[in-house]
Amino acid sequence: MSLTQTPIEQLLSFFTLEAVAPDHFVGQSQDLGFRNLFGGHILGQALLAAGNTCEERSAHSLHAYFIRGGDPLAPIHYNVDRIRDGNTFSVRRVVASQADKPILILSSSFQAEEEGFEHQATMPDVPPPESLAPTGKSDRPVPELMGVQAEVSSMNDLAIEIRPIDPVDRYHPVKKEPAQNVWFRAAGPVVGSQSLHRCLLAYASDFGLLATCLRPHSTTYYQPDMVTASLDHAMWFYRDFRIDDWLLYACESPTASRARGLNHGNIFSRDGKLVACVTQEGLIRRVQRA
Fold it and tell me: Of 45, 98, 206, 253, which residue is the catalytic one?
């Protein structure tokens, strides 16, 4: 990270893609100290690539499959297929690849501005973010997996400030209900269109959601015998918001079985508006270490 850049400024620099050919974009990776490239990074950039071909409409949903782990030190190529442009909706398909191998496939739909019926779930009654402690230096990298540059690169996820309401001890977890509420926001101002805010929300939505299905099993992905990974990820956007204002992530896990866990999340603005819904299935595998 440049000494003159804040973490959020560096993150924003990754959300400018280079157009190298019609409907072909290249984005830069970010090393957060994992085995692989952070899934939210690919997700957010893939949505950005799709939106670059559909600037007159707003993303309202995405469905993505993580095919293989990405290289956090290599650029990512995004090839966009313009599946359909209708009177109200446009559909795009994006293949993210490195070294000519796909790492993510995303389908996304964009909608022209339209009025309609309104109803929503009620935001949980939780303590305000100011009353909670932040998660510390970094909520993501696993120390045993960190590389030589991890001490520096792990600071990048401070671009998203996270304040859990009922946190789990990373290394000594106890059994809890398969639900959690977490406040989060960009750690600094974000100037840009609603499209950029939605791409950054896609990025941030991958922080901690998978951990919900681990809570009733007294385990976390920081434990050396656990292998976890996002398998697929879906989002629906319903109302405008600002990623640099506090958002509440209300998460629950209805089931886990066969080394997979399902997680749902509703994202509310601070004034109680339901702005987005998320569903993710993840790999949660306990392995025997030699």
Answer: 206
Q: Which two tokens stand for residue 69?
A: 């782990």
Amino acid at 263: N
Chain centroid, CA 19 distance in Å:
23
Size (the chain), residues: 290
Other Cβ atoms closer than 10 A to 224: 11
Which tens digit of pLDDT belongs to each residue from 49-90?
A: 999 999 889 999 999 999 999 999 999 999 999 999 999 999
What CATH code would you report for 7-112+132-286? 2.40.160.210
Q: Cα–Cα distance between 58 and 60 in angstroms, integer?
A: 6
Q: Is 280 a catalytic residue?
A: yes
* Cβ pair 48, 71 in contact under 8 A: no
Q: Calculate helix-pair angle for 194-204, 39-51, nearest 10 degrees.
A: 160
Tokens 């920081």 belong to which residue? 222
Closest CA to 243 of 62, 104, 107, 44: 44
125 is catalytic: no
28 included as an active-site residue:
no
3-state secondary structure of 13: helix
